[in-house]
Amino acid sequence: MKHTSYIKGGHIISIYALITSASAIILAIVWAAELAGLAPCPLCLQQRYAYYIALGLGVYGGFCALRFPIASRGLLVVLAIIFAANAVFGIYHSGVEYGWWAGPLGCAGTGAGSGASAITSTQDLLAQLNRPFVSCERPSFRFLSLSLAGYNALASFGLSALALYGAKK
């Protein structure tokens, strides 16, 4: 017996709800970790972009699914690509933490860091200087021998697979 949805695009809406909820939960976790004193490194901050984008696209795609299910599936493919790229970025960051390869200059404390281009005034410069530097090479937290970058790679891979599943279904 074939399952039919009562709402046009209902299964796609469920996929968007899962992706949006997971992104919000992950962002809440990293913000809570920051409030608890775990300062993020520049690569950690960059890995959050995928989740911010997913929040916006997830809400938009969920509403789109009601009227434009085909276009909404295309948006799921875009989300899958974004999360796949973020998974690769998380693997790269994990490799930097384990010393498998060198990180970017802004993570090693060798000069112009990740926020140097955003300095436009003396107040910005003072704020940058007062901010504690966190090296990308030393994870501030590990659980079951994985850092948050490793868990980000796993979560991003899972969300990418979920988005592809929703686009295919």
How does this model look, in words?
The chain has 169 residues and is an all-alpha fold. The chain has one domain. The protein has helices at 10-35, 42-47, 49-67, 69-98, 105-108, 122-130, 148-168, and strands at residues 142-143, 146-147. The protein has a two-stranded antiparallel sheet. The chain is globular.
User: End-to-end span in angstroms?
Assistant: 16 Å
* Low-confidence sequence ranges: 110-116
Specify Rg, calculated over alpha carbons. Answer: 19 Å
Strand count: 2
Proportion in helices = 55-70%
Order of helices and strands: HHHHHHEEH
Q: Going across the major beta sheet, what is the strand order?
A: 1-2
What structural class do helix, strand and pairing data support?
mainly alpha
Number of domains as seen in the coordinates: 1
Please state the oligomeric state of the protein chains shown: single chain
Shape: globular
- The number of helical elements comes to 7
Average pLDDT score:
79
The largest sheet, given as strand count, sense and whether it forms a barrel, is: 2 strands, antiparallel
Strand content: under 5%
Q: Short summary of the structure?
A:
This protein has helices at 10-35, 42-47, 49-67, 69-98, 105-108, 122-130, 148-168; strands at residues 142-143, 146-147. It is mainly alpha-helical and 169 residues long.
Distinctive features:
globular, 169 residues, 2% strand, 2 strands, 7 helices, mainly alpha, single chain
What are the SSEs and their pairings?
Blueprint: H1 10-35, H2 42-47, H3 49-67, H4 69-98, H5 105-108, H6 122-130, E1 142-143, E2 146-147, H7 148-168
Antiparallel strand pairs: 1-2
Helix pairs in contact: 1-3, 1-7, 3-4, 4-7
